[in-house]
Amino acid sequence: MLAIIIPYYKRTFFDATLQSLAAQTCKDFKVYIGDDASPEDPTALLGQFQGEFNFVYHRFETNLGGTSLTKQWE
Q1: Which DSSP category does 67 fall into?
Q2: Burial class (CB in 10 A: 0-12, 13-18, 19+), 64
Q3: What pLDDT, in 10s, does the model give residues 42-63?
């Protein structure tokens, strides 16, 4: 199984990204979405893709990715 990690902060291309993942014919992957304390809440959009593919969403309380991406994923 393939793991796909998506750091989320801006919604600009996020809908198109989720549509692309939902359109895949082989869905042998799991998507991990890390919300880096974005001011743009993606939960309603993610709800539209529930059941389309396997994903896990986690919201971080602080924007650690703005200073250190490696610390964020630790």
Answers
A1: T
A2: middle
A3: 999 999 999 999 999 999 888 7
